[in-house]
Amino acid sequence: MKQITTRRTTVFLAFWLCLAVALMQTTVAQAATAREGDQGDRVLAVQLRLIDLGYNVPKATGEYDARTARAVMTYQKQARLNQTGVVDEITWHFLMDYGKGGNYGKKDVARLLNVAMRFGGVPYVWGGETPAGFDCSGFVQYVFRQIGINLPRTADVQYELGRKVLQSELQPGDLVFFETYEPGASHNGIYVGDGNFIGANSGTGVAVASLASPYWSARYLGARRLF
């Protein structure tokens, strides 16, 4: 009787082990951010970052073509990652850590904040990405571009960049994100210090706001550090 029970236990454990491996493989496959043939904001983010780093991607089109795949493989080789040409989760995190190889420092943060503050009072415009009018992520993208950093366009993709930062560890230049009109990161701004951030907000245009205010504290989602 004991032998039968042991066999059943072994079979049971083997079944669940196989199931766990299958689920892990599925999770890894789903974690792929971009591969040849894909298109969209995440592909555009990959291309912009590769261009920033000097890889041979002639234009950021948002379409993952063969040239983008070759550039990804070159990056993976130099970063000592698996050379697949697919931007999996590991490649994405390495690639989007703007602090690696960028040599950004306090002067760059000061420049970033100076640029951001210059646009105080610019009106909020849905879809706006110029000084004639900004929406939240358009403002963030424009400001970072002025110091030579190309970011993807939308808040949800910007939320996947860099490294996660706890609210208690925020530093000037970090990106702060909020969950407003839809689930996930739907609004963002640039942390300026002392519990405040600057962003393009629908009620005020580009302005400094407090993270501790009832509205923003209730909707705070997280923060990311690019450098």
Looking at the structure, the CATH topology of the largest domain is: endopeptidase fold (from Nostoc punctiforme)
Unreliable runs: 2-6, 9-31
**What is the domain total for the residues?**
2
Strand content: 15-25%
Main structural class: alpha+beta
Q: Residue share in helices?
A: 40-55%
Radius of gyration: 21 Å
What order do the SSEs take from the amino end to the carboxyl end, as H and E? HHHHHEEHHEEEEEHE
Counted by DSSP, the helix tally is: 8
- Give the number of DSSP strands: 8
Distance between the termini: 63 Å
Corresponding CATH architecture of the largest domain? Alpha-Beta Complex
Produce a short descriptive summary.
The chain is an alpha+beta fold. It has two domains: 32-96, PGBD-like superfamily/PGBD (Muramoyl-pentapeptide Carboxypeptidase, domain 1), CATH 1.10.101.10; 106-225, endopeptidase domain like (from Nostoc punctiforme) (endopeptidase fold (from Nostoc punctiforme), Alpha-Beta Complex), CATH 3.90.1720.10.
